[in-house]
Design goal:
It contains 14 helices and 26 strands. With 577 residues, the chain is of the alpha/beta class. The chain folds into 3 domains: 147 residues, Immunoglobulin-like (Sandwich); 337 residues, Glycosidases (TIM Barrel, Alpha-Beta Barrel), CATH 3.20.20; 72 residues, Sandwich (Immunoglobulin-like), CATH 2.60.40.1180. The strands form 6 sheets. It has an 8-stranded parallel β-barrel. The chain starts with a helix and ends with a strand. The protein binds calcium ion. Calcium ion binds next to loops.
């Protein structure tokens, strides 16, 4: 069934469910039946874990804003969503140009005016779970909000900082700023224009640990540590502490968390050392990708090869074309990049193996900060080409990469023998390159369209100027899920049993001789069945009563319908006499 038909069918199903609320009941923890139906297909196309997928940085989006967009986010292929910081902050402004307020916390509690409450955060995590989407939370643990922009006030805590933090002098480093960024002690022990917390203090660490575990208890799946470079390592020569080992070692469910630190490269960054404790941000690579696609530089795709990350394994790197800092900060490092440049950069970054690419969502509207805090940004994150590259990334999980170049304006990112993304920064071109791809004709899944042919170890085909080609065969692995049915109150006479029959092969294709059953009668007159079915399958079915002579009693009324979810599939209904 094609996608259009499926979508239309999904709408129909919702109406059916609304009209017949008592005929099907679902065992949903937090998700409704309707959500399960919408999510089934999307979730089945996302990889299992954050490290195999791509992250949407839903910058400044409130919890409710993110929650309302989950179907679109899943459909666009994002495995994970990174929130802005969720802690209480020093002001309640919603002015978009004051985004930095979210990086000026006053406590280690969940909830602020811009993003929402602790309960709204919980609801977001619960609903994201039903889509197979992970929630990564931005954590500000290096510093608190300050009193003013400049001078000594920049290093004084805001008066509304949690008094149990504000009034404990042991919780603060010296209240002055870094003057030498090549001095590791200064980088970790002095302020970055903000009052620096004494992150080596165990009682302060305990507050942070409790906060992180609270977020985990509500469903957080990982953390991005803001200004991680400014929190000392156990291996630092001066100013060392056990912050990272003790805090990260105290997290509940830690083996399932994705943790990365903002370790912007430059100065005394100790970049490779951080990678011993967490994943880290390949900020130099972002700079090179921006140059590669011609931003303030002559286009040169060869620049997009080297991660330039102090030999840290690519599997420990978070990559991006731009970050909220390069976009939003006063130095405007990437602010003037065009959407086309962003898209081409993303095609390269997200086509590659091993790293976890992060897509930054710019604010919507005209001007740098046109939209209010709490609202969604512009729509580039769900652009058809961006989504096609995301789906490619997901489908290629586990495949190694091989980068090829056709001149300085065309890059071919090949993954195993399964797929390839071609980004053409130049004019219309004929691709003719060696390849390891399996022989065949590949249809471009990006908007540029067209087909490419692989034969005799070469790939050939036409690509439009400034276009992306996303090439791979649709051989999605089928995920199976158990679906349990309980047919209630189906009383039978001697020799008669209850079966399920439906329009799919696993339910006999409406052939009563191949119906599933008889059901378990542990709780007669209820009949239980468990059937393993491919996730995403939509099917029609009915219960029947059948005796040894093959006399059939069909349920009355319309066929029942269901779509197999990736998570819970529990169906229970009364036999319609
Ligand atoms: Ca610090």
């Amino acid at each position: 069934m094609n996608k259009m038909v499926k979508c239309f069918f999904g709408v129909l199903m919702c109406i059916v469910l609304l009209l017949q609320p008592f005929q099907l009941s679902f065992d949903g923890k937090d998700q409704s039946a309707i959500v399960s139906l919408q999510t089934a297909e999307a979730a089945s196309n996302l990889p299992a874990s954050t490290k195999d997928g791509v992250i949407l940085l839903a910058w400044n989006w409130s919890f409710d804003t993110i929650r309302s967009r989950l179907p679109e986010i899943a459909a666009a292929g994002y495995k994970s969503i990174q929130t802005s910081p969720i802690q209480g902050v020093k002001e309640n402004t919603m002015n978009g140009s004051h985004w930095w307020i979210l990086y000026q916390p006053i406590n280690f509690n969940i909830g602020n005016a811009q993003l929402g409450t602790r309960e709204q955060f919980r609801q977001l995590c619960a609903e994201a779970e039903s889509y197979g989407i992970k929630i990564i939370v931005d954590i500000v643990a290096n510093h608190m909000g300050n009193q003013g922009f400049s001078g000594p006030q920049a290093y004084m805590p805001a008066p509304n900082v949690d008094p149990t933090i504000l009034n404990n002098s042991a919780f603060w480093h010296q209240l002055s700023g870094i003057t030498n960024w090549n001095d590791r002690w200064q980088v970790t022990q002095l302020g970055i224009g903000l009052p620096d917390l004494n992150t080596g203090n165990q009682a302060l660490q305990d507050k942070i640990i409790a906060f992180l575990n609270d977020a985990i208890s509500l469903g957080a799946d990982g953390f991005r540590f803001d200004a991680a470079k400014h929190i000392e390592l156990p291996t630092d020569q001066y100013g060392a502490s056990n912050f990272w080992t003790r805090v990260l070692g105290s997290l509940n469910n830690s083996s399932n968390l994705y943790i990365y630190g903002e370790v912007l490269q430059g100065g005394a960054d100790a970049f490779a050392q951080y990678a011993n404790y967490m994943n880290v941000t390949a900020s130099n690579y972002g700079s090179n990708v921006r140059k590669a696609v011609g931003f303030n530089n002559a286009k040169n795709v060869n620049l997009a090869y080297n991660f330039n990350a102090a030999n840290v394994a690519p599997s420990k790197l978070v990559t991006w074309v731009e970050s909220h800092d390069t976009y939003a900060n006063d130095d405007e490092i990437s602010t003037n990049m065009s959407e086309w440049q962003l898209k081409m950069g993303w095609a390269i970054v997200a086509a590659r193996a091993h790293t976890v690419p992060l897509f930054f969502n710019r604010p919507s509207g005209n001007g740098k900060f046109a939209s209010n805090l709490g609202t969604a940004g512009n729509n580039l994150w769900k652009d058809a080409d961006i989504a096609a590259v995301n789906h490619f990334h997901n489908a290629m999980a586990g495949q190694n990469e091989y980068l090829r170049y056709q001149g300085s304006e065309i890059i071919l990112v090949e993954r195993g023998n399964k797929g390839m993304v071609i980004a053409n920064l130049g004019s219309n071109a004929y691709i003719d390159q060696p390849t390891n791809l399996t022989n065949g004709v590949y249809t471009n899944k990006a908007t540029g369209g067209g087909t490419f042919t692989v034969a005799n170890g070469r790939i050939t085909g036409n690509i439009g100027g400034g276009k992306i080609a996303v090439l791979y065969q649709d051989t999605q692995p089928v995920t199976m899920a158990n679906v349990t049915f309980t047919v209630r109150n189906a009383t039978t006479v001697m020799g008669q049993n209850v079966y399920l029959v439906g329009n799919i092969a696993q339910l006999g294709s409406w052939n009563v001789n191949q119906a599933v059953g008889p059901g378990s009668t542990t709780n007669y007159p209820n009949w239980g069945f468990t059937v393993s079915l491919p996730v995403g399958t939509t099917f029609e079915y009915k219960a029947i009563k059948k005796d040894a002579a093959n006399n059939i009693v069909w349920e009355t009324g319309a066929n029942r319908t269901y779509t197999v979810s990736a998570s819970s599939n529990v169906i229970s209904f009364d036999f319609r006499n």
